Sequence to fold (172 residues):
Amino acid sequence: MSLPLSSNIEHQIEQASRLYHRLVLVVGAHHTGKTTTLQALAAKHDWPILNVNLALAERLLELTVRQRALRVARILSDLLAEQTADVVLLDNLEMLFHPYLQQDPLRLLQSLSRNRTLVATWRGLYDSRALVYATNDHPEYRRFEDPQAVIVRAQTNDPVNGTPSTVMETTE
Fold:
């Protein structure tokens, strides 16, 4: 029996609050309800939701490519520091994977999740051993063995209604 995605995320936030990395990754393919679920949780709990792509793009716009790579982690840290809630929801992380930024997106999210719980959508898959972003022939392809995060796999079990459900795993 699978639970609704939002219920599983809420449960995993409680679990993550006791871990070294307070990071919950909602992993799934496009159109598995990740963004909609985060929006519902934001409304229900009054948690801030940050569109990472948009927020970073606005702050990186005036910088050179080299400056962007050097400052992206600090800028994301500053964006999170502006939030007062103990739980912050992060959506649209794709920019963090862009090769010109030269980032390790998972390690960056882990470091930012030391002082507050982060719930981030992750377009990709988790196969109980590794967290994957993109396909292996894509320039942004990344594979993370033993990701040290709470993983909530979003999947659509109901092909008629597209109702998202989840499978939960903790890798910490």
Notes: The mean pLDDT is 89. The longest strand covers residues 117-126. The radius of gyration is 15 Å. The longest helix spans residues 65-81.
